[in-house]
C-alpha cells in the first residue's frame, strides 16, 4: 500500500503547475458553488414558507376577530366576510375552521362537509397536512378563549401550498441554472487568470529551449521579480560553465603544444640508442603519444550537454573535404561526396571536422581506389556514412577498431586513435555508430546524430 501511495505521489509530483492550479480551481468551484446553492435554496425556502405562514396568520387573526358565541342557542357564529371568494368555493383549497371541545364548529363554505384535524396549542402553530381530495395544505392554528365559554376554541386557517411549492421549485431551478452558468464563467475566468499568471513561466521555458538549441546564450531577465532572480542565477551558472569549457579546451591545446616538443626530442634521443633499447623506448614513447593524443582530443571536444548554435554542414566541411580530396588524388583514390545542401546542425565546427576528418583519414588509409562520404538529414537525425573498397573487417575486428589506440595492422602508419576518437564524439552528442561491410567489400561506418536544426 505504501508503495502504491509513493508511486501516486511521485506521479503527482511530475504534474504541471498549470494542471495543478486548474484542478484546484475546479475543486473549489465544485465544492463552493453547491454548498452556496444549498444554503441559498434553504434560506429562500424558509423565507417563502415563513411569508406564507404570516399571510395565513393574518387571516387567522381576522377569523378570530369575527367569531361570536350565542349563549341562548349555545352555538358559535361567524358573520364577518373575509373578502376572499376562495373561502366560499367548495374545495377551493382555502379554508377556515373554528371548533370547541363540545364538537361545536363553524367552518368556511369551502370545507363543505369536511373538517380539518385539530392540534391543541395556545401558541400559533404552523404545519403541513393532507386536506380534502388529497390536497396538501399549509395550516396555521391556535387555541383562544371566548367569553362566556370556559373551554378553549380551536381556530384554524389552511391553504393549499401548491403555489408555494411551485414558487420554491422555480426559484431552485433558476438558482441552479444560474450557479451552473456562474461556475462555467468562474472556471473560464480563473483558467484565463492561471494562463496569464503562468505566462512568464512559459516564456522562460521557451527561452530555455532556445538556450538548449544554441539560438541564444542567456535567459531573458525581463520577468517578474520571483523569476528574474532565478533567471539571473541560471545565467550565472551558464556563463560559468561556458568559461570552464573554454578554459578546459584552451588548457588541452596548451598541453598539446607543451608535450609535443619533449616527445619529439625523446624520439630523436631514442634513435641514438642500441637496437634493443631503441625498440623498447620507441614502443613506450608511441604508447605515451597515443594516450596523450586520445585524452587531448577528448578534452578539446565541446563536451556533453552543450547545445551549440547551428552551423552550416556543407560550409563547415568544405575546406576539410577539399584538402582530403587532394590527398586522395595523390594516392590515386577517388573521393566521392554526397552532402545535403542547406542543412544546419547543432554541433561545434571543430568537433564536426574532427569526426569527419578521422573517418576519411581512416578510409583513405585503407581504401584501394574509391572512398564515398554521404551526409543526409533525416528529420532531426544527421546520417553520416563513410565507406571504402579496402579489405574490410570481421565483426571481431570492428569491435576492436573502436578501442583506443588499437591498430589492426602495425605496418600501417598512424596511431590507431581515429575511430576511437570518433566513438567518443558520437557518445558526447548522444548518437549511434556501427561498423559494417560495405557493398564494395570494404568498411562502412554509419553514424546517426540527433543534431539537425529544425
Q: What key phrases describe this protein's structure?
A:
Helix Hairpins; Heat Shock Protein 90; single chain; 14 strands; five-stranded mixed beta sheet; five-stranded antiparallel beta sheet; 454 residues; 3 domains; alpha+beta
Describe the structure.
The chain has 454 residues and is of the alpha+beta class. It folds into three domains: 14-197, no CATH class; 218-300, Helix Hairpins (Orthogonal Bundle), CATH 1.10.287.130; 306-449, Histidine kinase-like ATPase, C-terminal domain (Heat Shock Protein 90, 2-Layer Sandwich), CATH 3.30.565.10. Helices cover 53% and strands 18% of the residues. The protein is built from ten helices and 14 strands. The chain has helices at residues 2-13, 17-66, 162-197, 199-212, 225-271, 275-300, 313-330, 349-366, 395-401, 418-428, and strands at 67-70, 75-78, 94-100, 105-107, 125-130, 136-144, 153-160, 311-312, 334-339, 344-345, 370-378, 381-388, 432-437, 443-449. The strands form four sheets. A five-stranded antiparallel β-sheet has the order 4-3-7-6-5. A five-stranded mixed β-sheet has the order 9-11-12-14-13. Strand 3 and strand 4 form a beta hairpin. It is rod-shaped, with a radius of gyration of 49 Å.
